[in-house]
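Duplicate of #3305? Posting structure anyway:
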């Protein structure tokens, strides 16, 4: 992975529609350099609206847990500074990257115009013989610790370890996909009601 710094990001949201009304309720980031996780960041976020019951059931995050959490505006500067000079990674990038950019713009910051890597697509190339490509399928197959699925911090760390496993298995694959996904910011603007983490809405 050389000197490239990868920011592996996972978001939990009040919903998965790109309709402008959904908000982040948790963000998790794991930073990878030279094949190792070198730093992490996570925060629950007060969405300033009720969390739907289905989201609470999925994530375990309740209105009470985010009541005193920072609003996204309170952490946006730290989030932007941590991500701006990285390669953005997510499982699947088509969910997390547009949502995060939407929140950045809403908070008065520019969109992240950085390369992006999708671990779903990478896994389909490198682990083409696995039974599924949901994060829990891949972590189970690769025996990656993932004790708290649908928690943004746990998902981000698990995805970071998946990225490291992909790199070990096929050292050149991630470089190819960085170039492939470098225009993802401009392409991923169509509303979509699919939760790309493998959850149906």
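Output from current build:
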């Amino acid at each position: 992975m050389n000197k490239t710094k990868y920011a592996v990001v996972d978001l939990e949201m009040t919903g998965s529609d790109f309709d402008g009304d959904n908000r982040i309720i948790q963000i998790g980031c794991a930073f990878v350099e030279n094949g190792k996780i070198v730093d992490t960041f996570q925060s629950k976020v007060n969405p300033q609206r009720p969390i739907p019951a289905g989201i609470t059931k999925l994530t375990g995050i309740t209105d009470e847990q985010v009541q005193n959490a920072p609003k996204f505006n309170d952490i946006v500067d730290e989030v932007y500074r941590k991500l701006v000079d990285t390669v953005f990674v997510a499982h699947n990038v088509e969910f997390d990257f547009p949502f995060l950019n939407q929140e950045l713009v809403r908070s008065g910051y520019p969109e992240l115009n950085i390369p992006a890597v999708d671990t779903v697509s990478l896994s389909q190339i490198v682990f083409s013989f696995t039974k599924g490509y949901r994060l829990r399928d891949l972590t189970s197959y690769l025996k990656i610790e993932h004790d708290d699925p649908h928690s943004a911090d746990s998902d981000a760390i698990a995805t970071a370890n998946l990225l490291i496993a992909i790199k070990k298995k096929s050292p050149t694959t991630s470089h190819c996909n960085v170039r492939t996904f470098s225009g993802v910011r401009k392409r991923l603007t169509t509303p979509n009601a699919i939760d790309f983490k493998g959850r149906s809405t």
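Confirmed duplicate; merging threads. The CA atoms of residues 101 and 112 lie 6 Å apart. The beta strands are 6-13, 24-33, 36-44, 87-90, 116-118.
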